[in-house]
Amino acid sequence: MSRYGTSPPAGTASGPALALVRAWAAGVLVLLLTEYAQMTTVYDTFVGPRGVGSFGAALALVHLPNLVCVVLATWAAARVHPEPWREVPVRHAAAGCAVPAAAQVLTLSLHWDRAGPATLAFWMSTAVLLAGCAVGMLLDAWWEGRD
Questions:
Q1: Which long-range contacts does 2-11 make (Cβ < 8 Å, 24+ apart)?
Q2: Tens digits of per-residue pLDDT, 50-87?
Protein backbone atom coordinates (compact mmCIF):
# COMPACT_ATOMS: atom_id res chain seq x y z
CA MET A 1 0.00 0.00 0.00
CA SER A 2 1.44 3.34 -0.97
CA ARG A 3 0.88 6.55 0.90
CA TYR A 4 -1.84 7.57 -1.55
CA GLY A 5 -3.98 4.54 -0.81
CA THR A 6 -3.25 2.59 -3.98
CA SER A 7 -1.10 -0.44 -4.40
CA PRO A 8 0.56 -1.92 -7.46
CA PRO A 9 -1.40 -4.63 -9.26
CA ALA A 10 -1.04 -8.17 -8.00
CA GLY A 11 2.06 -9.90 -9.25
CA THR A 12 4.14 -6.75 -9.64
CA ALA A 13 7.04 -5.95 -7.40
CA SER A 14 7.04 -2.23 -7.98
CA GLY A 15 5.02 0.81 -8.89
CA PRO A 16 5.04 2.75 -12.15
CA ALA A 17 8.07 4.88 -11.27
CA LEU A 18 10.27 1.89 -10.54
CA ALA A 19 9.03 0.21 -13.72
CA LEU A 20 10.19 3.24 -15.71
CA VAL A 21 13.56 3.27 -13.96
CA ARG A 22 14.06 -0.42 -14.72
CA ALA A 23 13.18 0.13 -18.39
CA TRP A 24 15.49 3.14 -18.59
CA ALA A 25 18.33 1.16 -16.99
CA ALA A 26 17.96 -1.52 -19.66
CA GLY A 27 17.88 1.16 -22.37
CA VAL A 28 21.01 2.85 -21.01
CA LEU A 29 22.87 -0.46 -20.82
CA VAL A 30 21.98 -1.46 -24.38
CA LEU A 31 22.69 2.02 -25.74
CA LEU A 32 26.11 2.14 -24.06
CA LEU A 33 27.07 -1.32 -25.30
CA THR A 34 25.91 -0.76 -28.86
CA GLU A 35 27.42 2.71 -29.12
CA TYR A 36 30.71 1.39 -27.73
CA ALA A 37 30.67 -1.42 -30.30
CA GLN A 38 29.89 1.11 -33.03
CA MET A 39 32.65 3.48 -31.94
CA THR A 40 35.32 0.78 -31.68
CA THR A 41 34.45 -1.11 -34.86
CA VAL A 42 32.94 1.33 -37.35
CA TYR A 43 34.00 4.80 -36.28
CA ASP A 44 37.59 4.13 -35.26
CA THR A 45 38.20 1.86 -38.24
CA PHE A 46 36.54 3.76 -41.08
CA VAL A 47 35.91 7.36 -39.99
CA GLY A 48 38.82 8.39 -37.77
CA PRO A 49 39.49 11.81 -36.24
CA ARG A 50 39.13 13.71 -39.54
CA GLY A 51 35.48 12.81 -39.92
CA VAL A 52 33.69 11.77 -43.07
CA GLY A 53 34.14 13.37 -46.44
CA SER A 54 30.68 13.11 -47.96
CA PHE A 55 26.99 12.84 -47.15
CA GLY A 56 26.91 9.21 -48.28
CA ALA A 57 29.81 8.32 -46.02
CA ALA A 58 28.19 10.10 -43.08
CA LEU A 59 24.94 8.26 -43.72
CA ALA A 60 26.58 4.85 -44.02
CA LEU A 61 29.22 5.17 -41.31
CA VAL A 62 27.57 7.40 -38.71
CA HIS A 63 23.80 7.71 -39.01
CA LEU A 64 22.78 4.16 -40.00
CA PRO A 65 24.86 2.55 -37.21
CA ASN A 66 23.36 5.11 -34.81
CA LEU A 67 19.91 4.09 -36.04
CA VAL A 68 20.64 0.47 -35.13
CA CYS A 69 21.81 1.55 -31.66
CA VAL A 70 18.66 3.63 -31.05
CA VAL A 71 16.36 0.85 -32.30
CA LEU A 72 17.99 -1.73 -30.03
CA ALA A 73 17.98 0.56 -26.98
CA THR A 74 14.33 1.50 -27.51
CA TRP A 75 13.31 -2.10 -28.04
CA ALA A 76 15.20 -3.29 -24.94
CA ALA A 77 13.69 -0.60 -22.74
CA ALA A 78 10.20 -1.29 -24.07
CA ARG A 79 10.58 -5.06 -23.58
CA VAL A 80 11.72 -4.64 -19.97
CA HIS A 81 8.81 -2.32 -19.16
CA PRO A 82 6.48 -4.62 -17.17
CA GLU A 83 3.03 -5.68 -18.27
CA PRO A 84 0.62 -3.80 -16.02
CA TRP A 85 2.29 -0.47 -16.75
CA ARG A 86 2.88 -0.97 -20.45
CA GLU A 87 -0.85 -0.79 -21.18
CA VAL A 88 -0.75 3.01 -20.88
CA PRO A 89 0.61 4.11 -24.30
CA VAL A 90 2.16 7.38 -23.12
CA ARG A 91 3.94 5.71 -20.22
CA HIS A 92 5.13 2.86 -22.44
CA ALA A 93 6.45 5.31 -25.05
CA ALA A 94 8.26 7.23 -22.30
CA ALA A 95 9.78 3.98 -21.05
CA GLY A 96 11.05 3.09 -24.50
CA CYS A 97 12.08 6.43 -25.96
CA ALA A 98 13.36 8.47 -23.02
CA VAL A 99 16.89 7.07 -23.03
CA PRO A 100 17.65 7.74 -26.72
CA ALA A 101 16.04 11.18 -26.43
CA ALA A 102 18.13 11.99 -23.34
CA ALA A 103 21.26 10.77 -25.14
CA GLN A 104 20.40 13.05 -28.08
CA VAL A 105 19.97 16.06 -25.79
CA LEU A 106 23.23 15.25 -24.00
CA THR A 107 25.13 14.87 -27.27
CA LEU A 108 23.75 18.12 -28.67
CA SER A 109 24.49 20.01 -25.47
CA LEU A 110 28.09 18.76 -25.42
CA HIS A 111 28.67 19.49 -29.12
CA TRP A 112 26.47 22.52 -29.64
CA ASP A 113 29.18 24.23 -31.68
CA ARG A 114 29.25 21.43 -34.29
CA ALA A 115 25.61 20.36 -34.31
CA GLY A 116 23.50 23.48 -34.02
CA PRO A 117 19.94 23.60 -35.37
CA ALA A 118 21.14 25.13 -38.63
CA THR A 119 23.34 22.14 -39.51
CA LEU A 120 22.53 19.01 -41.47
CA ALA A 121 24.07 16.88 -38.70
CA PHE A 122 21.44 18.14 -36.25
CA TRP A 123 18.56 17.24 -38.54
CA MET A 124 20.03 13.87 -39.51
CA SER A 125 20.57 12.88 -35.88
CA THR A 126 17.05 14.04 -35.04
CA ALA A 127 15.67 11.96 -37.91
CA VAL A 128 17.69 8.97 -36.66
CA LEU A 129 16.25 9.48 -33.16
CA LEU A 130 12.65 9.68 -34.38
CA ALA A 131 12.98 6.77 -36.80
CA GLY A 132 14.85 4.64 -34.26
CA CYS A 133 12.28 5.20 -31.54
CA ALA A 134 9.43 4.48 -33.96
CA VAL A 135 11.02 1.28 -35.25
CA GLY A 136 11.94 0.16 -31.73
CA MET A 137 8.39 0.66 -30.48
CA LEU A 138 6.96 -1.08 -33.57
CA LEU A 139 9.36 -3.96 -33.03
CA ASP A 140 8.17 -4.21 -29.43
CA ALA A 141 4.52 -4.23 -30.53
CA TRP A 142 5.28 -6.88 -33.14
CA TRP A 143 7.15 -8.99 -30.58
CA GLU A 144 4.28 -8.62 -28.11
CA GLY A 145 1.77 -9.72 -30.77
CA ARG A 146 3.71 -12.90 -31.59
CA ASP A 147 2.53 -14.66 -28.43
A1: 8/84, 9/84, 11/84
A2: 767 777 877 888 889 999 999 999 999 999 999 888 88
